[in-house]
Amino acid sequence: MPLIWCSISGHGYGHAAQVVPVLNELGRRIPGLKVLLRTTLPRQFFEGRVEVPWELSYQPQDVGCVQESPLRIDRRATWAETLQFHEEWESRLEEETRAIHARSPTLLLSNISHLAVAAGAQVGIPTIAMSSLSWDQILEPLLTPGDAQQARVIQEIRRAYSQADLLIRVTPGMAFPAFSKQTVIAPIVRPLVSDRARLAEALGGLPSDYLVLVGFGGIALNRLPFDQLEALQGYRFIVGEAVPFHYDRVSSSSGLSFTFGSLMASVDAIVTKPGYNMTVEAVTADKPTLYVRRYDFAEEECLVQFLHRHGRALQLSVQDFEAGCWGESLDRLRRLPAPHHSPPARTGAAEAATILAGYMS
Fold first, then answer.
1. Nearest CA to 190 among 349, 357, 355?
2. Which backbone phi and psi does 27 adopt, to 5 degrees?
3. Domains, the chain, ranges and CATH?
4. pTM, to two decimals
5. Is the dihedral of CA 303, 304, 308, 311 positive or negative?
6. pLDDT digits (tens, 9 = 90+) for 289-312
């Protein structure tokens, strides 16, 4: 029975959101396929999403970035945890190698753990990386000038990545100088179905209210400007956080019988940070997007360019976001014309599955 060892970064949900559609597509092509998910993400994320038989193996695969909030990286904590991870590199690599050996998978897929790539190469199985970012490229702009330890870690990450048989570079994506063999695929987008009428009814208010989803990935916001949002007539907001009972125009998604994907498909606009999953799904579903930039996350630039080229988008400053000064920007967002460029084909999952199936045969 074919088994994929699938290593997924625990930094937010975007890495898993890229992998799951590919695994599902691959399962439709390879009878009896099973998947071992090696990650620190919670089981609940995969339940109802992964359509092939799977099991969860809870084990840290990388550090990524330590976030103060969805909009702020804690640089000191990021480097402290990353250096600690690499101080234990040899024992971690030995543990991963031993665990892979014990299960004898047909193929290793990493998004985008350098530890998993190094272990898969050491075991000698086909080892494929797939992502829109790599951690060496994310960490490099966060380097402390003159810090030799940090520079050494980035080189270790690149040496590990260089052992991959192939990088599947997902559009839109960064440059990946550490990988010698690469292929580019279209965006990976899950199918979404709108149910706006039911959502509007569940939220109450007027049918003409403009429905706005506020989503910042798997990392919770510290606070939201509830009073200012409540004052925006003609708008209704859906947030992932708990909402005090006395607000009428702001609702928590936890109280609605909608998945996050169905909420994205059903709202009129999105307020978010430029992350991969939110960006490509907003563009594909033609959802006007008000985004808040982070500037210290290197993948962001290619996502912002993609939003403006293929979608309808405006930037909101961090200061205006935190102060609740959203009204003028939302009004402008509603008036934006249709994009000049149509979105790329949504064939990334099928393209990746074709590539992986070739390695498994």
1. 349
2. -65, -30
3. 3-188+347-360 (3.40.50.2000), 196-335 (3.40.50.2000)
4. 0.93
5. positive
6. 999 998 889 999 999 999 999 999
